[in-house]
Amino acid sequence: MYAVNLEPHTPVKKGSVFEFPFDVDEHYVSEMKDRALVLDEDPLRCQSLPHMEAAGWDTLELIMESKAAAYPEHFSLSKDGDKWRWINRPMGIDDTFIFGNTSTLPYGPMEYITRQAQGDFAVLDQRDGNLWMDAGIVTTQADWSLDFDIGMNFFEWHAPVPLAHELGIFKRALKFLLNVQHGKPARRLNWTMTINPRLDTSPENYHKWGKDRLTVTPENVGEKVYLRVELQTFWRLPRSNGLLFPIRCYLISMEELSSIPKWGCRLHRVLGSLPQELRDYKGLTSYIDDTVAWLSKFDQGQETSPGTFPD
Amino acid sequence: MDNSHLAGNDDYIEGEERFSQIPCSTLEPMDGTCHIILAQGEGALAVLDLAKKTSSDFWQKTHLAYVPDNIEPNRTSQLQDLNPRWFYEWPTLDAALPHVREIFANSKQGSRLYVTGTHSFIGIIFQQAHNAGIDPYEALAERRGPKTRRIQCVHCKGFMDNVATQPVTCSHCGVLLLVRGHYSRRLAAYQGVCINAEDTSEIPETKELFS
Amino acid sequence: MKNIVGNKINAIVESITPVTESIKRFKFIPEDGGEMPVFAGGAHIVVEMPDGDIIRRNPYSLMGNIDDRSSYSISVLQVKEGRGGSNYMHNNVKEGDKLTISYPVNLFALGWKAHKHLLIAGGIGITPIISQAQTLMQRMLPFEMHYIARSEEKAAYLNELSQLYGKRFHFHVRNKNSRWSVDPLLLNQPVGTHVYACGPEKLMNNVVDTCTQAGWDKSTVHIERFLAPASGKPYTIELKESQKHITVRKNQSMLEAIEQAGVNPPYLCRGGACGQCETQVVSFSGTLSHHDHFLSDEEKASGKKIMPCVSRVEGDNPHIVLER
Prior knowledge:
The complex is a heterotrimer. By secondary structure, chain B is of the alpha/beta class. Chain B is built from 4 helices and 12 strands. Chain B has 2 domains: about 5-145, Rossmann fold, CATH 3.40.50.80; about 150-210. In chain B, strand 1, helix 1 (about 45-50) and strand 2 form a beta-alpha-beta unit. The model of chain C has no long low-confidence stretch (mean pLDDT about 90). In chain C, the strands form 3 sheets. In chain C, strands 1, 2, 3, 4, 5, 6 and 7 form a 7-stranded antiparallel sheet that branches. In chain C, strands 10-9-8-11-12 form a 5-stranded parallel sheet, with helices on both faces. In chain C, strands 14-13-17-15-16 form a 5-stranded mixed sheet. Chain C has helices spanning about 85-90, 125-140, 160-165, 185, 200-215, 255-260, 295-300, and strands at about 10-20, 25-30, 45-50, 55-60, 70-75, 100, 105, 115-120, 145-150, 170-175, 195-200, 220-225, 235-240, 245-250, 280-290, 305, 310-320. Chain C is globular. The chains are: A alpha+beta, B alpha/beta, C alpha/beta.
């Protein structure tokens, strides 16, 4: 039922989200504004336990070096010893600070750089043969709470996933992640669905957005129902030996998705064969039948080409 | 990480997630230079049971603290009869906490922790131990007394002690909460999430599940 | 993006410095003149040494300045009766030589939740401890460092460490005339202390045993074991999946022989500790001589698994069939 669909995070295709280690797209500035608003309202969406400072500097270094190399027209980083200058042109930032000295930044290092990076970030401590979610910034999540899960180990934070008794999968995934090495990042894709293009589906606000699920009708599936795909990557952090776990979320409406016939056909088959436990866990129960019915017109039993890219 | 200690966790409710539960099992003697035992209410009985399994020198290097919490009968004299090297009694958890912190802060690496009583008591002592540098994953806990839970409402972040029912109305923000089998050691609480967010007119039956 | 994604580093030996009678320090710079990937206390690299028709791959702890990205330094103790790795480094490698090294791997990382760090080094085991102390200094974390050696002359970097770390640094001579014991030190640490030990087997076993009896959580006891692969009589291997028959020479490890045949199992420590190269045994004749610290006693007794980085086959008609 579950697959550990982990693979090396190597560049795949020019122009795709896999081209660079950290994808920056046309929604960059607006997503960063959204993040700032969510953090103003609920500062607990960004937390770092005291022992995670080294990992925070690791995170800042990795993202700055990566973005400056991948998008030199937007970002630049220059170093004079431990005096660093970081320029983020789209956001109008030009800061000079002392690497390793938190008092020279307006926020802690992890918060500083992830307020300038799309997607959620969990920063994991590695100890005692386990991974611990000890820091993170989470404003675009699929129904999990950093404030509640912070400090938990790999098995604890995965506990709400149904059929967790299929433990072999989790043990294998953990073993893989514990051995991700510096220089060799890995990635996997995860997915769920959501109503309206809402990135922030937090449990904190569930009592506010949960009712959206009952607004789906056979007629409005195309514009109301969105597929939510998460690109999860895994990076060994060399200073702290921690693991950075960015979760980058992409949304697409059923209408837009089905404009690629291969995608409409595939999603129809996946949703149609989804076990009940996962329908419940992903929160699809109240609208999945309407969605499967709506997608059926794209599935004539045809064969689809390998891979995920459009034909 | 060894999760085998959860195997004997009688607080686990069928159908709940086994891997984030309050870590309860049975107290057993461990190797160590010093033992710190904290018992609340009916937890005194767990300590007396532990004493049946200990060697004679065990109690010579043991701190035993008893928090009766007005729960009858009082077991002070039975616990004192175990002859621990140090014996303390404080009426409630609040009264005990400053002293417990002091004991933790002055202990040597290699001290072993045993906690017994209600979920709330165990959870809060473990929080203190963690802050002092004692890894509570290596400590032992045994629940005695009711199975009531300590809950955090994920919406308003308020805590509720001694929750016995499923669902439960948040005493702070009024949202009707599903008590999830998802436990945070850091917060010493299970998670409460709105049970009827999709349709608030739907009111599920309330059951006495944790008692 | 070399420092973010990559596999191996082409390095030049910039300098070789004698440290003691039997220890030399090697400084590597990247061939392309760029920066080395970041590392931290406890990390090691694997150095590839083309020795005749085989490639030796030995792990060495990184030392030197963790903030200086222009170079890496390692210290190599020459083990004259060893299999050849350290002799190769001492006798064959010259300044200006090109060598391939791996990205840093850390199997001896600091425990960031510790309230205090107790570093214990014996002999050449000082090398990972040096970079750990640097990391702790840089992050202003409380630590105490104990260095044990047979004599002051044999203790590499003694003066430097003593000057750098002052009261945090303690040196102990341990030889026939002076038996310094680690036990009292371990029995009097405040709660929340983590211990890190690297050095001779005896010292590390001593630390583990004392801590276990004293009730230290296993998560607070960090041991860096780099076992040199055992030498022994030659024997033969059949690699079932790759359909190859090979011979393991006297001074070669099973892993090195498998690599020489063109099969590349994953590895990290090459010293019997990390478990990466664990291999299924299909059948064998003779006896399995397990030298690793990874497999449990039951697994070793079962004859179903072996760690080819350090273990061998011995006895009569030694031969092994592996699932590789």
